[in-house]
Amino acid sequence: MNLYTLISATIVLAISLLSLPLLNHYWFNSTSPRLLTADLILKNGVIFTSDVSLPFADSMAVQNGRILRVGNYSALQELAGDGTKILNLDGKIVVPGFIDSHVHLIPGGLQMVRVELRGVNHKDEFVRRVKEAVRNSKKGSWVLGGGWNNDLWGGELPVASWIDDMTPHNPVWLSRMDGHMGLANSVALQLAQITNFSQDPNGGTIVKTSHGEPTGLLIDAAMKLILPWIPEVSVDERREALLRASNLALTRGVTTVVDFGRYFPGASVQLSWEDFSGFSQHFDRVYRVLYLIFSILFYGMEEIYI
Ligand SMILES: *[C@@H]1O[C@H](CO)[C@@H](O)[C@H](O)[C@H]1NC(C)=O
Ligand SMILES: *[C@@H]1O[C@H](CO)[C@@H](O)[C@H](O)[C@H]1NC(C)=O
Fold first, then answer.
1. Domain that holds residue 219
2. Which keywords has UniProt assigned to this entry (predicted)?
């Protein structure tokens, strides 16, 4: 035990000493503004700085993606050089990047190319979109989608019979916008052997009619009954999905996320870890514009939900 502590301490000390020249170099540069030239200066904006001594400024100088200085335009002019691009914000507001502390980027990115039910505010429209998707699907293949929110059409929860007529040959799975429940059609229920006699799993509900027949709606851990029947998406598809979702996040000003992967209450965390393994390296190399930090935070999840 003591030996380990000693070795660790020695390593930390060695790293610190080795980093000292780097640190000096950094200070030297950052205290010598004459050496710095901004490649971008934003001016004439309302820039929120989070700094009480100057909460708002009108200009900001940037070099290589990092902020050099924030202040009034006059205070930044010395950072301008030949190649400096000056961007007039015309009074627009600038805030630091948003941090979204609960996202599911890969499932979200996959959903972006599936049946889109987000914003649907009428049962007929729900049914119409599924019908259209089925028309474009091969017989027997899964029709997947989601994003529905029953609150938008008065609260009634969807049931398999809404879509069974038009989906006699395709299993269907449509998750709710929060990912905590989903609707299966009767083909999917049959495939997953969910019947009148199926019992609720721990932490989940198979919603049933008053006569004891599954309606198609599966809540939380009950979703585990259907998901293994849906074919796995390939690594490439997952990468594309991650990129799609990341780009959407960036266009909305979200620059950092805490990602819960494909985790939902009652599911194993293992699959989510596997989904992300090897990704950060890939993205750093290929998509240098992405500064999303993929941190998967499962800490304490089990205690929260069970
Ligand atoms: C910035 O400019 C505004 C007016 O343009 C002025 O009121 C303010 O004092 C200036 N702030 C600093 C830090 O120079
Ligand atoms: C399930 O229950 C419903 C309603 O009671 C009934 O109509 C149906 O025949 C039952 N299905 C099976 C396979 O027992």
1. 106-229
2. Membrane, Transmembrane, Transmembrane helix
